[in-house]
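Continuing the batch. This is chain 6 of the set; chains 1 through 5 are on the previous pages. Same settings as before, nothing changed between runs. Recording input and output for traceability.
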Amino acid sequence: EGHGGGRMLGQFVQGLPDHIGGKLMNVAISRAKNHLIVVANLTHLDRLLPSASLLRGVLYDIQEKGTVVHGSDLLALRPIERDLEGLLGRVKLDVDAETLGIFNHSAFDPAFEDDVRAAKESVVIFSGFVTPSRVSKLGDLLRAKVANGVKVRCVTRPPHRNGSMDRASSKEALDYLEGIGCVVDCRARIHEKVVLIDNKIVWHGSLNVLSHTHLTDESMTRLVNSGFAEAVAANIAKKRVSGSTAVKFVAGAENPRCGRCGARTVYDDGRYGPYFYCEDSCGWKVGLGNVTKQPGWDRAAGPTNVPVDGPPCPVCHGKTTLRQGPSKPFYGCKRFPACKGTVNIAKTSTKAVTVGTTKRRTRSTSRPRQRKLSSDRKPSKRPSR
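Output for chain 6:
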């Protein structure tokens, strides 16, 4: 509710004392033992809160007995000169950017582009969406940085989940980025708007760098702090790593290439945990934990010691293809989900093949098995009738 742009408040905020919203607010506030800090748009709440709302009475008591601090007073405590390092004197800043470090959609572009031009090691962009027009606008700048040895990585949505943008145009934008030398990783549910430059400068806010059209009001904040950059890099990485480790690899590819067709892959969360699947929908997939741990799998190329096509499906006798399960690869029917037949891949050293729950094993030696003679057999302990 803090933005103040809505015409009405949510039920949890405007709830009366005997409603669920009022009860939740009462529980939250009554747990405080030493300090209670409320961050709120008081003007907006005073205009829309019902007269009998529990929150209205609480806010009134806080204003009467506590202290009200204006938001601009808090922002003024920031070491703004440090967070504007490199921009002061080089880029024209408006009042909000120069005094509070907040950049609107118009002020962001010149400052961001200047940071990219000054980058010496890496530029990492996390954008919830991507468009060809925006990518072409930044293309020359990013191409020049790649040519100068700066690592550039773009993390965004795959073509089939790129909002209202058609699939062909979205793929064109991603292909263009790869064509100029950028690393492109796709995530199915990405919504972060973050830029990391040289593992020191952090831009974050509400603006999608790879798709913004200047038709919406957005804001971004710039911080210059290597410790904070490490924390952000670790937070947005899909593997659990420390901050110092995350910044070493944040500009490198996190997604593997498709093990079957070599296309880009997409990170997503599934029933059995996070995994990568082929962007071109060829059916290949691999679990996040198995990208580097699974024997016989190469991070960039996929499976290395098993064929792509498997034995006939045990259910419909159709063709099977290599797939990646939650813990290991297996052969799945190509007619899935119509047919759910699977063939498990066993270790090649024992030449065992498991179909369903029935195992068929062959010995690695050609020596015939010796059967005991009847005279050598032990007498049965079963009593005779």
